[in-house]
Design brief:
54% of the residues lie in helices and 0% in strands. It is mainly α and 100 residues long.
């Protein structure tokens, strides 16, 4: 037996994407907590069932430090050491480093 096709009620996809107003309060709060950065950063309307403080959320997001800088490539350090000791061109140093 064929089932009827679902009909979309609204056309505002972004607004309805994070709509938690029809959920039980405890579940709505959990979902609001997960998506609080989305509500605040994308300036979406925060549902009345959510207790989201966008000022605090944005301050927390802004305070996240950048990822650490990766350590230098050890193979490049070896080439630089050979060049410094032997005063050779970079290509000569590379050829000698490969030979080691």
């Amino acid at each position: 037996k064929d089932l009827p096709r679902a009909v979309r009620v609204g056309s505002d996809f972004v607004k309805n994407l994070l709509n938690v107003s029809s959920l039980p309060t405890s579940l709505a709060q959990r979902i609001c907590k997960i998506y609080e950065q989305d509500y605040c950063c994308f300036q979406l309307e925060v549902p009345s069932v959510c207790s989201v403080n966008c000022t605090a959320v944005l301050e927390k997001v802004a305070a996240v430090p950048p990822p650490p800088t990766p350590p230098p490539d050890p193979s490049r350090a070896s080439i630089a050491a050979i060049e410094a000791v032997e005063h050779v061109s970079p290509m000569d140093g590379w050829a000698r480093a490969k030979a080691l």
